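Please go through this protein, sequence plus structure tokens, and consider how the sequence yields the tokens. Keep your notes short.
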Amino acid sequence: MLVIWGRLNSHNVKKVAWFAEEAGLPYIRHDVGGAFGMDADYLAKNPNALVPTIEDGDVVLWESNAILRYLAARHAPERFWPADPAARAMADRWMDWQFDYAEAQRDAFLNLIRRTLDQRDATAIARSAAACAKHMSVLDRHLADTPWLSGEQFGIGDVPMGVYAHTWFSLAIERPDLPHVADWYARLQARNGYASQVMIPLT
């Protein structure tokens, strides 16, 4: 059985747990990191002291997007890992693009969710919100022409940004009207794995 190590209030852990649900993979998840700490056994698996890490038989793997690609290729290749390199790359690019978005969202998230009111930096929040809006506008233009980041159907390319989209819609920041992103987000919310693994209170 697949073992996922990591707390579910981590964006990167949410990605992996949600994808396991989408792929129908039996799994068990152990809370690690943050308030749960990391013991020596975990650090032996992941010397970076980050989450998530998975164990899948003899395979021990860290880095969330690498985990997604591995799980798709090994366990659901026909559905989530197309044989055509071009089709695969069209979805895969959004997985790497998500890292730029995560950097844009970082200050808004940390200030509004992880810091107390007296610790918040309003300037950093506004700057972060503006950067997020710029990135999401790129996403909106793409989604005007295709229903999913992965193409004509939901796929692995939707997972990383799908997790961050929930945070964007949940943060108390100004957001531009982006109808295609809003429609995509509404369709994500209708997916059982997204509702159970991603749509949890931000902490």
Summary: Strands lie at 2-5, 27-30, 53-56, 59-62. The mean pLDDT is 97. Residues 162 and 179 are 15 Å apart (CA to CA). The first helix runs from residue 11 to 22.
